[in-house]
Each structure stands twice: as C-alpha cells, then as structure tokens.
C-alpha cells in the first residue's frame, strides 16, 4: 500500500461507512452486485463499513456468503406492504443504532428507491457527507422508464437528495456527461465497478450444462446474460442473429436472465416470428456456478443495450476470457489498444455486420481476443483497487469538512 493510500485509510480509522442498496439478491443483477462487492472490499481493507438492504434473510445471507461479507455487518430492513415497493419503515431506527464516533459517510446506490429516501434522512440526521451512485439512472433511456414514478420520487425526496449530495459517483465518463445534462452541478467522481475472479468449471460440468440446454458438441454459443428488459434491446440482437445463423447454422444464441415486466413473452414471440426457435435457448436467470458455466460454455458475449452505466455482465464476460460485442450505449472507462471485441452503433445494419463478423471469426482468434479482454479487466477492474478509490473519495469529503457543493 502506498503512503497516500495509507493516509486515506488512516483518515477513515474512526469513520463508520453506511452503504445502502435496495437488494443484493441474485435477481438484483449489476446494482446489488456492485454495492455488495464494493462493501466487501472495503471491509477486507479494514474499513468500519455496514451494508443496508431490504432483502429476505435467506437471499441476503446467501449473497453475503458468496461475496465474503460478514453477515454481522448487514443491516436488513423488514419489508412492510407490497414487496415491489420495498418499504422498510424501521430501517432508519436500525441504522441509527450503529456504533459511531460522530464521523460517518452515507453512500446510496441507485435512485428513485426507498433506500435512497432513507439515505437522505440519515444525511440530515447525522449531518454527514452523502454520496450517490446513480448506476446509469440519470441516462436518458433509463429516465424514460416509469417517468411518473420517478417524477413523484423526485418531488418527495430525490430532488432534495441531489441538492444535498456531497458527490455523485459515475461509472464512466459517459455517465458523468449524462449527470451534467440532467442538471447536477456539484462534485462528480468517476469510479467504475469491479469484477470478481472467474469460477473454474470442470470439463464434465461444461459438457453437462451444454447437454442440458440442448447445445450439441461442436456448436458455438453466443451468450446474452442480463435482465430481459426493453432497455437491453433484444429485438436488435434477434433480428441480426436470424440473418447470421442462416450463414452460420453452427451457432446457438443463449439468452440468460430474469424477466422484467413480461418482456420475455415478447422476446419469445419474436423468436417464433423470425423462425429461429431451433437456434435460440431462453434459459431464465442464472447465478453462481450456473452463471459461470454459461460464460465458460460461450464463445462470444453480446449486449445490445440502448443505455448502460457500466454493465457488470460485460466485465464478467471479459474476466471469463470472452470477446464482447456491444452497442455504443455506454463506454468502458479505460484506454487500451487491445482488440477484445466489437463496439458498434445500435442500429440494424451496423450491428448485423458486427455480429456476422463475430460469427465468421475462427475459434482460435476468438480465444486470443478473450485473453486480451481478461487482461484489460484484471488490470483495471479489481475490487480492491475500486475500494481504494472509494476510500480516497470518502477521506477527501471528510477532509473538506463534508460541505455540500450544490
């Protein structure tokens, strides 16, 4: 650890850090994964950090165990009312009991949620720095989803939170630009998400996984692994794949992920309309070893999203040494000359051309690109390094006297 890093940790020696996120369960995807693994990395480094969420006990403890985060530092609010609202009115009281020396940091992940409301209450109660991580929530395509709910949340609490925030954390320079366009004029820091090391899979496990999902030996897998949601732009992928598989029938498109607002039904209807049922597998949500097997069994990872902050699934695919095919709905916050995939505009012709190029690429070259992808991730996206950046931010806010800049 450098002297500068050591100084930052020493500044936090008597500080309590509260990370808040609505869910860390497997279905939470990137948001929960990022918040949980950042918190776990901070705890490993010796920070006095707690994680607040409103998951069911079994789901929360299972996620903590997987990330190596001690469940004694998990503050779980009990849900009251409809689960989709994720209301836990006693959570503020629970968090107020956390031992502290009067020096605290509150870091809330995601906007427009009950946990974001709680973060604002804590900031005003403790008069401490408030850090907000939108995780792509302020990008235009994301703002267009459920606009009435977001307008109400803005009126009730989120406008005040943004006004009082000491800093917003962007996952990339592109997200930082979206934050500025939204109208936030205070401090913004770019701190990306990290990624955990790949889970090793045995040859027989891979063969069993492929057999279970009807992928014959010799066939290649194009993997989509994310929420099955409209913002992920799956129709673009399906139309492009329908053309490519006619030329390369040895490819299988595997769609893995949980359904959002019934979009899976629309996806399956389009698969039937395009008459590509024999070449597409919709396998539902995967996690843990099953997710590792999905990555390991694939040859190329694809994400055609309209908009993203920094998609964890892309970093995971790169960690599993897979080349990636992406649309320009986001940017990877690194500079590299390595050829680890394709990044193209999210319009039909350009995407179809890139997908066909990927399907044309020999397996040995795909593996070479995958190794470049893994090297990029391991150099730039380790969780311990991300935690150091967060620590430096927290220390600077405390050193500044946690003045609100807006």
- Terminal CA distance reads 34 Å
Order of helices and strands: HEHEHEHEHEHHEHEHEHEHEHEHEEHHH
CATH superfamily of the largest domain: Glycogen Phosphorylase B
Rg (C-alpha, Å): 21 Å
Based on the structure given, which CATH architecture of the largest domain is correct?
A: 3-Layer(aba) Sandwich
- Which structural category do the helix and sheet elements fall into? alpha/beta
In terms of DSSP E residues, the strand content is 5-15%
Q: Compute the number of structural domains.
A: 2
| Main sheet strand line-up | 3-2-1-4-5-6-7
And the CATH topology of the largest domain?
Answer: Rossmann fold
The level-1 CATH class of the largest domain: Alpha Beta
For the report, how would you describe the main beta sheet? 7 strands, parallel
Number of helices: 16
Residue windows where pLDDT falls under 50 for at least 5 positions: none
The oligomeric status of these chains comes to: single chain
* Number of E strands: 13
What average pLDDT do the residues reach?
Answer: 91
* Shape summary: globular
Estimated helix fraction: 40-55%
């Amino acid at each position: 650890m450098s002297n500068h890093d050591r100084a930052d940790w020493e500044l936090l020696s008597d500080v309590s850090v509260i990370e808040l996120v609505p869910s860390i369960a497997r279905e939470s995807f990137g948001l929960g994964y990022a918040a949980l693994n950042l918190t776990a990395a901070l705890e490993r480094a010796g920070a006095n950090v707690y994680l607040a969420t409103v998951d069911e006990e079994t789901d929360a403890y299972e996620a903590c165990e997987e990330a190596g985060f001690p469940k004694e530092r998990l503050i779980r609010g009990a849900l009251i009312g409809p689960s989709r609202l994720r209301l836990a009115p006693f959570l503020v009281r629970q968090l107020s009991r956390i031992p502290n020396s009067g020096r605290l940091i509150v870091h809330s992940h995601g906007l427009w949620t009950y946990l974001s409301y709680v973060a604002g209450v804590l900031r005003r109660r403790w008069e401490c720095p408030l850090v907000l991580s939108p995780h792509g929530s302020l990008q235009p395509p994301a703002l267009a989803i459920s606009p009435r709910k977001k307008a109400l949340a803005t009126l009730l609490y989120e406008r005040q939170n943004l006004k009082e925030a000491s800093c917003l954390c962007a996952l990339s320079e592109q997200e930082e630009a979206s934050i500025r366009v939204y109208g936030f004029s205070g401090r913004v820091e770019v701190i990306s998400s990290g990624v955990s090391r790949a889970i090793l899979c045995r040859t027989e496990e891979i063969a069993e996984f492929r057999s279970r999902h009807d992928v014959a030996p010799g066939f290649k897998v194009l993997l989509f692994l994310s929420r099955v949601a409209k913002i992920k732009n799956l129709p673009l992928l399906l139309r492009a794949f329908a053309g490519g598989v006619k030329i390369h029938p040895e490819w299988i498109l595997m769609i893995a992920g949980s359904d959002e607002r019934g979009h899976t039904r629309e996806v399956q209807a389009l698969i039937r309309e395009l008459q590509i049922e024999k070449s597409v597998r919709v396998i539902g949500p995967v996690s843990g070893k099953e997710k590792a097997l999905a990555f390991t069994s694939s040859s190329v990872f694809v994400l055609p999203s309209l908009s993203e902050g920094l998609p964890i699934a892309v970093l995971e695919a790169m960690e599993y040494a897979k080349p990636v095919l992406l649309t320009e709905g986001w940017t990877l916050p690194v500079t590299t000359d390595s050829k680890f995939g394709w990044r193209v505009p999210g319009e039909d012709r350009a995407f179809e051309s890139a997908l066909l190029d990927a399907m044309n690429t020999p397996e040995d070259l795909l593996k070479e690109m995958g190794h470049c992808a893994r090297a990029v991730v391991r150099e730039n996206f380790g969780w311990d390094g991300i935690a150091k950046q967060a620590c430096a931010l927290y220390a600077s806010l405390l050193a500044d006297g946690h003045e609100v800049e807006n």
